[in-house]
Amino acid sequence: MTDTATDYHQMWAELGLDLPMHDALLEAVGGMYGSTFMTQNNRPAGMGYLDFVMSEVHGLRIKELDDFRKNGGKVVGTYCLYVPEELIRAAGAWSVGICAGAEWAYDEVEQILPRNTCALIKSMMGFKLGMVCPYLEEADLLIGETTCDGKKKAYEELGKLQNLHVMELPQMKREKDVAFWRSELVDLIAKLEELTGNKITAESLSAAIKEVNDKRRALQRIAAARAADPAPISGLDALLAVQVAFYDDVPRFTASMNALADELDARVSAGAGVAPKGAKRVLITGTPMALPNWKLHEIVEKAGGVVVGEEMCTGSRYYEKLVSEDATTVDDMLDDIAAKYLDINCACFTPNTGRIDDVIRMAKDLGADGVIDYALNFCGTYQIESAGVAKAVQAADMPVLRIETDYSAEDVGQLSTRVEAFLEML
Ligand code: BJ8
């Protein structure tokens, strides 16, 4: 994946990576990227930016983090949408979402975690145990959260290997839960100020809120363009944009995504798209697709469908809602951040009817012909919600396909057959 002109092995060695294994990972992901993304037709020129970012995902970006840290900066790694990147940036640190989207070192992982743990958690542990993730090794602090039981318990193990702070996330959304969550934000601020030596001020927090909102606004523009028929961008490319949003430089990424959105708007006006007008349009809802998990989108789009939206953490849950920009004091900004983040509709919450409302609204707004509900095996929260989601989608007169899978390629043939039959039926 990395530009062959620059050799980063010295940097990776200094980070303590397992070099032969890391080379194997880069080769595998590079091959997947080539066959999945570079074979698509009529991609927007603006995707060149994301192709470049991906080609340097363990190279130039890690060098930037490395240089930042050598100049006294701190890097904070996160695994979940509930961790507010605004606070991390306001403390002068850089936030990176740690990838957990590929099978790695499962033999070692299964000595610690049960075999029947979801792929995302296994991957999170596997990248650490296998010493193949430079983002993890650049992180001065990891932030975990008490979402599902699997993640919560896995953080106990990860915390033995790396500096880790766990935020306690309530699992209901009553007023007292919002107040409790706000108190967790106050604790996080103390932790970040201790780590960076910087005080979070009204000025730094307001600037961070604005910057992160701008990033989300750019992604909203891309999402809105996908309502057009023909779709101006593939689901694969739109998914990639959100995946990259978690770790790229914020202002640079925002500018590039706004340029991409301009191009998509022009395509929509010209009636140009990546799939023929009338191609079957699918909304996907469910568990997040961390890098480099592109499996389901690839299956749908290779079968002739087009994914027009993702109701998931690597999708609308990430960019749909913004933190208010009206507050002028840190206290008021914290109220706004607590409210915005607790408004994310994750299946870890009970009840979580807001997610179903989101799915129906998005499917209608985006002109979806059908919905695919996607859950990782052993993810109890999303698996249990699946029946309710399916019922609500059918009640809204839309077909639904329920899929449970993992990160392996073993079921690709079987899934392709099911997806093809689903698209034919739409
Ligand atoms: S806000 S979806 S990123 S918790 S897939 S680890 S839920 S067993 S990832 Fe998630 Fe935050 Fe929610 Fe989003 Fe557990 Fe399920 Fe695994 Fe999951």
SSE inventory with pairings:
Layout (H helix, E strand, L loop, with lengths): L8 H6 L4 H19 L9 H9 L4 H11 L4 E4 L6 H6 L3 E4 L8 H4 L9 H11 L4 H5 L2 E5 L3 H10 L5 E4 L7 H22 L5 H24 L9 H11 L4 H21 L10 E6 L8 H8 L3 E6 L4 H4 L10 H13 L10 H13 L4 E7 L3 H16 L4 E6 L6 H14 L1
Parallel strand pairs: 1-2, 1-3, 3-4, 5-6, 5-7, 7-8
Helix pairs in contact: 3-12, 10-16, 11-12, 11-13, 14-19, 17-18
Outline of the structure:
With 426 residues, the chain is of the alpha/beta class. It has 19 helices and 8 strands.
What does this entry look like structurally?
The strands form two sheets. Strands 2-1-3-4 form a four-stranded parallel beta sheet, sandwiched between helices. The chain has a four-stranded parallel beta sheet with strand order 6-5-7-8, sandwiched between helices. Helix 11 packs antiparallel against helix 12 and helix 14 crosses helix 19. It has 19 helices and eight strands. The radius of gyration is 21 Å and the shape is globular. The model has no long low-confidence stretch (mean pLDDT 97). Helix 9 links the parallel strand 3 and strand 4. The chain has 426 residues and is an alpha/beta fold. Bound molecules: Double cubane cluster (BJ8). Double cubane cluster binds next to helix 7, helix 9 and helix 18.
